[in-house]
Design goal:
The complex is a heterotrimer. By secondary structure, chain B is mostly helical. Chain B has one domain. Chain B is built from nine helices and no strands. Chain C has a single domain, classed as Up-down Bundle (Four Helix Bundle (Hemerythrin (Met), subunit A)). Classes of the chains: A alpha/beta, B mainly alpha, C mainly alpha. Chains in contact: A-B, A-C, B-C.
Chain lengths: 206, 218, 242
């Protein structure tokens, strides 16, 4: 369950923003993406998830084992907490158990409509979705937004357990998750400079 | 896919007016027509098939812009597209949910509203048949239009401009089946063509719709 | 050197700037000769009188209205397959030109219809098809203008153009079916294509058609140049601000 990125370049708004990105995500490893706002963490994660094409390069990974979680939770407010998770379990063909709700501390909310949840509770529900999926490689974009310290710890526990089971995770975040021995991937060396030749789509016009 | 269909139906019912809204709109359109063209039952009987079909098409438009937009806004569309579900399957499930909440109830309500417009009883049978065969095409063409405009703020009006011209062949053949049926004339190739349009649309448009959906998520 | 080299935006600007005056000049000459010859130096038709002369505007405009859409379809396919930006921009540039031709065809048809059929509008299959084509043009242009990102807009409009073509064709067939169903056996006087046009009318008509074709080409080249320059300006600004 490794993910190997070879010389990938990604573009946003018609310009290549990151290029020659190389990294390997090993089984049982968590890799934290670092870099200032607008550097391209989200773009890189979306590209890896298959939502947008790479400009160059390739990724070796079994795409069926990759799961992506964005800033938005994808929580349906008219459905109950349980129904929200049940839908994802059915879509991925897995079983849903109460343990998942407990591990994210939303077991009491099981039958509540998601519309009545606070933003932190909603976020935990969104993250609980990841525990339902059979996916081994997690691509997470700012997973801890609007979580308090206790919830961040719950999330860190989940990631630790996930890694222990042989999974792996690529996480874009600005805070310290408190995970043991994580590696960091600083994106700043891969940023393309403004005046360097650029393969972006718009550049054909200059 | 079934799970997605079930979820969308559940959402349609809970959001209020999933089934009801399109039906109420259909009723209002049909009620307005006599006020416009006069209460002459003979005239109404002649235009009944066309009015019902036009009303059904307008009612279909109502909920189209929400088909993908709601999932797009809360992020679940991205999650769905990156799930093991094929994107074509997502489009089909969404279109099916739309059909069950609009096309199907409209088809079944049409004969009742037909009474208001002096539609003869055997005409009502053909009305239901033509709508049942034709409305799936409306839903899937609408899904294509909704996929095209999903990234656009207030894309509802644009969606209508894009989708309505594409409804022309379905409307022509559908209304023709209903009209000929109620007048007791031979159907000709109209019913065959209506079936062909529906089948082709359901068979091919999901591919185009899934392509545009992925472009819009880029 | 492959022919696709000319599709590079800058190369395209260079060679079209050289060609454009000639195309525009030929178009002006052909259109003037065709129209003046047609209006003033052809005899009146024994049946339709001088009203027949609107044919020199109506037929070329109708022809180009359809050809413009076909050109957009080909350009869209080239964009989707080979990702040449100029191709997508040419399709975008052609749409407003095509829509004006469609409007000219519709209006001249209506003006011609008044003395011929006694009404400005009849739901004749051809006229109806043009009206539907007009609606497709509107939708296509509306989609272009609604999307911010240029490449996304090009992708979406290309797919719309392809799917729209299928439905426009289907509508053409459906309209034929529908109209026959209403007035069976009525003769349709507008069917110019099938009518044998006498040589005295035909030669100026041919010149006028060539002229309209060249006019379309000139307008599309000019508008494509403008679109390229617009994209170029946007790309330069994007580079400055990053």
């Amino acid at each position: 369950m490794t993910l190997v990125a070879k010389n990938i370049a990604v573009e946003r708004g018609g310009r290549v923003i990151l290029k020659d990105v190389n990294f390997t995500l090993q089984k049982g490893q968590a890799l934290i993406l670092r870099g200032h706002n607008g550097i391209g963490k989200t773009t890189l994660l979306r590209s890896l998830a298959g939502l947008q094409p790479f400009v160059t390069g390739q990724v070796d990974a079994d795409m069926d084992t990759v799961a992506y979680a964005s800033h938005a939770d994808g929580v349906k407010s008219q459905l109950s907490v349980w129904e929200n998770l049940e839908f994802w379990a059915q879509t991925y063909g897995t079983d849903l158990s109460d343990d998942v709700l407990e591990s994210f501390d939303i077991a009491d909310l099981k039958t509540r409509r998601a519309a009545t949840l606070s933003s932190g509770q909603k976020r935990r529900l969104g993250l609980a979705r990841l525990a339902v999926l059979p996916s081994k490689i997690l691509l997470l974009d700012e997973p801890t937004i609007s979580l308090d310290a206790a919830s961040v710890r719950l999330f860190a526990d989940f990631i630790t357990a996930h890694l222990a089971k042989g999974g792996s995770a690529l996480i874009a975040t600005h805070i310290d998750l408190g995970l043991p021995d994580v590696e960091e991937l600083d994106l700043s060396p891969f940023v393309t400079s403004a005046d360097a030749p650029n393969d972006g789509f718009d550049e054909a016009f200059i | 896919m079934i799970a997605l269909l079930r979820r969308d139906l559940r959402l349609a019912i809970r959001a209020g007016g999933g089934f009801g809204l399109a039906l109420a709109f259909f009723l209002i359109v049909v009620v307005l027509v006599p006020f416009g063209v006069g209460a002459d039952m003979a005239v109404l009987g002649r235009v009944a098939a066309g009015v019902l079909w036009t009303g059904a098409i307008l009612a279909c438009l109502l909920s189209l812009d929400r088909m993908f937009a709601l999932d797009f806004e809360d992020g679940s569309l991205e999650l769905l597209v990156t799930s093991p579900l094929p994107t074509e399957g997502i489009v089909l499930a969404k279109a099916a949910a739309h059909w069950i909440t609009t096309g199907l109830p409209l088809s079944l309500a049409a004969p009742v509203l037909g009474i208001l417009l002096n539609l003869p009883p055997h005409g009502a049978v053909w009305m239901v048949i033509s709508l049942l065969v034709g409305t799936p095409a409306l839903s899937i063409i609408g899904a294509f239009g909704a996929a095209l405009t999903v990234g656009i703020k207030r894309g509802g009006l644009l969606l209508s401009i894009l989708v309505l011209p594409m409804y022309v062949p379905t409307l022509i053949f559908g209304a023709e089946v209903a009209r000929r049926g109620s007048e007791g004339v031979a159907l000709g190739s109209s019913l065959v063509m209506l079936c062909a349009i529906s089948l082709l649309a359901v068979g091919l448009l999901p591919f185009a719709a899934s392509k545009v959906l992925r472009i819009n998520l880029k | 050197m492959s022919i696709w080299e000319y599709a590079n935006p800058l190369k395209f600007l260079n060679w079209t700037t050289k060609v454009l005056p000639w195309v525009a000049g030929c178009a002006a000459v052909c259109v003037s000769v065709g129209l003046i010859w047609g209006f003033f130096f052809t005899p009146d038709d024994y049946r339709q009188g001088s009203t027949v002369k609107i044919i020199y505007l109506h037929v070329p405009a109708a022809l180009m209205a359809i050809n413009a859409w076909l050109m957009m379809l080909v350009a869209s396919l080239i964009w989707l397959v080979r990702r040449h930006h100029v191709s997508a921009l040419a399709a975008k540039a052609a749409a407003p030109v095509g829509v004006v031709f469609t409007l000219v065809a519709l209006f001249t048809g209506a003006i011609w219809g008044k003395p011929m059929w006694g009404a400005y509008w009849a739901w004749d299959p051809r006229l109806t098809s043009f009206l539907i084509l007009f609606l497709f043009y509107l939708g296509y242009m509306a989609l272009w203008s609604a999307i911010e990102d240029a490449d996304t807009a090009a992708d979406l409009t290309s797919v719309l153009c392809m799917v729209g073509s299928v439905f426009a064709l289907l509508s053409r067939y459906a309209v034929n079916f529908w109209n026959q169903g209403l007035h069976q056996g009525t003769s349709v006087p507008v069917a110019t294509g099938e009518r044998t046009v006498a040589d005295v009318f035909f030669v100026p008509l041919l010149i006028s058609m060539v002229g309209f074709g060249l006019m379309f080409l000139a307008l599309v080249l000019l508008r494509t140049q403008t679109e390229i320059r617009k994209r170029r300006a946007a790309a330069l600004i994007a580079r400055e601000t990053t």
